[in-house]
Amino acid sequence: MNIEPIATTSSSDRGSFEQDFETPSFIERVRANQQKLTADLKPYYDFIVCGSGSSGSVVARRLAENPQVDVLLVEVGGSDDVPEVMEASKWPLNRASERNWGFLGQPSPYLNGRSIPLHMGKVLGGGSSINAMAWAHGHKNDWDFFASEAGDPAWNYEAVSKIYRRIEDWRGTPDPEHRGIGGLVLVQPPPDPNPVAPAMVEGARSVGIPTFESHNGCMMEGDGGASLLELRVRNGKRQSVFRSYAFPYMDRPNFTVLSRAMVTCLTFAGKRVTGVEIAYGDKTHRIGAGVEVILSLGAMHTPKLLMQSGIGDQAELQRFGIPLMQHLPGVGKNFQDHVRSACIWEYREPLSPRNNAGEATFFWKSNPRLNTPDIQAVQVEVPFFSAETEARFKPPAGSWTLLPTVVQPKSRGHIRLTGPKPLDPIEIHDNLLSHPDDMKALIFGVEICREIGNSAALRPYVKREVMPGNLKGADLENFIRDAATTFSHETCTAKMGRDSMSVVDGYLKVYGIDNLRIADGSIMPCVTTGNTMGPCVVIGERAGEILRAEHKL
Fold first, then answer.
1. How confident is the model at residue 21 (pLDDT cuts 50, 70, 90)?
2. How many whole angstroms separate alpha carbon 239 and alpha carbon 360?
3. What is the mean pLDDT of the segment spanning 162-172?
4. 318 — phi, psi (to 5°)?
5. Does the pLDDT of residue 18 top 60, yes or no?
6. 326-327 and 311-312: which strand pairing?
7. How far apart are CA 459 and CA 474, in angstroms?
């Protein structure tokens, strides 16, 4: 490999550097180039990035920016060029499609014996192609905790804020201290929001929650507040991370994007990863990585691939006769997610949802002594319920919802293998609400959402409260266990840190293994406060910075 360094594009010249990547001529160029590259796969690439989601697309783009570097991006899902992905309003239709892995947690006593659906993207763009498109930076304390766990100030809030300013193209009220302009990541407040959304923000203000122009500025440095939710939507179209980062480079000869290809295992020479095995078409391909392999498969499949390749808890691997490459007991542990309940009101006069149908939010503390807001609520402009609460409360179609959510959970789950083969499913013990403090926080969340939903500001949009009503004590707890669902922010199963349960160090290198890094939500020591797409992009950017510096790209 003969690599020469290239200059990083600055935000000031990025506008002229980028072009319109939606033109028919560019799309045809991409099609022809990728058809050629994937028909003639090489035996070796400099870097292999496994997974095209909110981190993997970023890593692959940053590596491919150097034309001397050959990059292979592998994705098990198929094309994102379908209306359900591209049109922002259709995002819920992805849930029951081939673009969702459709994971289910194990039946849980903490959820009245229920199994919770855990959505993850199985498509080019991963979660960023099927999610609700909300953009959240995470709280200052989240990133400072990352830095303390890694022992590296490059992960702290000040450093991460610089990344956000560099990558964003913020279309809201100017805030140069916190927001960037001209970057790859278009973000904006919801255009022409449903009037129920600003009314929710005013309702939050009426119960003592301060309001802000943005939930990604100074609001995420303090006790919380309420604002409209920021979205990755332009002219009604989803702006996935894959489309912003990877797609614009797919006409280049050094960047191969291989979809509908499953990475089945890592290959080794001693403790050094040499490449991957891929099931593609009806063949198994063994492809070498001349420099490194980067895993960006998400919080389910990154630990699964590690364990099935011999990296994990020795006792867990022995159950299935998997030869041990490296004993790392933290692989698959520390699972975290954002568990939520639901409060529903019937519209006085039904209003159609706009944008992503979820345009307002607030963050707040269930206990004023906490350092970080532990509750978030998102307003959804349609009824949102579990099967159990639908049967009990029968919400009308013309309803809207507040979803109180625990965003600093203390509950911890884990995932386990059920066999050594790539198609053997994993067993997910999400353990949501297993810690009593999470139930206390969610009780507070339901109560304050009811107070906001029944406030004067929202009275014009309320015919009646549908659920839960004035439940107390054990009745309220039982309702919460029946109503509980998740934002599908599955994270933390291969955490960054320096203790015995850590899987990667501050440079995202897997302990004890050479030429292998992880860049996705699984490396989070704790799940960030709010939606996780933005933090996963930052993880991808950090991986890109680290790789380019270490290999002098």
1. confident
2. 19
3. 97
4. -65, -25
5. no
6. parallel
7. 29
Cis check: omega of the bond before 436, within 30 degrees of 0? no
Active site residues: 489
CA separation, residue 200 to residues 10, 206, 240, 399, 415 (Å) = 38, 10, 27, 14, 37
Instruction: Let me know how long the chain is.
Output: 553
Q: Which two tokens stand for residue 281?
A: 């078409």
CB 128 within 8 A of CB 54: yes
Helix ranges (H only) for 262-420 are 298-308, 314-318, 387-393
Look up residue 172 and give its DSSP letter: S
Q: How far apart are CA 219 and CA 227, in angstroms?
A: 9
Residue 443 pLDDT greater than 90, yes or no: yes
Distance CA 57, CA 204 (A): 37
- For residue 428, which of 413, 406, 438 has the smallest C-alpha distance? 413
Is 499's pLDDT higher than 80? yes
Amino acid at 184: L
For residue 522 the two structure tokens come to 């699984």
306-to-10, 261, 264 alpha-carbon distances in Å: 36, 17, 10
Task: Return the half-sphere exposure (C-beta side, CA atoms, 13 A cut-off) of residue 411.
Answer: 26
Whole-model pTM: value is 0.96
CA distance 290 to 284: 19
- Going by C-beta distance under 8 Å and a sequence separation of 6 or more, which residues neighbour residue 328? 306, 311, 312, 313, 503, 510, 511, 512
List C-alpha distances in Å: 278 to 58, 73, 287.
21, 12, 8
Q: Mean pLDDT in the chain?
A: 95
**270-311 pLDDT, tens digit each:** 999 999 999 999 999 999 999 999 999 999 999 999 999 999
What is the share, in percent, of the chain residues with pLDDT greater than 90? 95
Q: Which residue has the tokens 């001349």?
A: 290
Contact criterion met (CB below 8 Å) for 337 and 118 = yes
For residue 15, pLDDT beyond 50: no
Instruction: Please give the Cα distance from 29 to 32 (Å, whole number).
Output: 5
CA quadruple 305, 308, 314, 315: dihedral positive or negative? positive
Q: Hey, what amino acid is at 315?
A: A
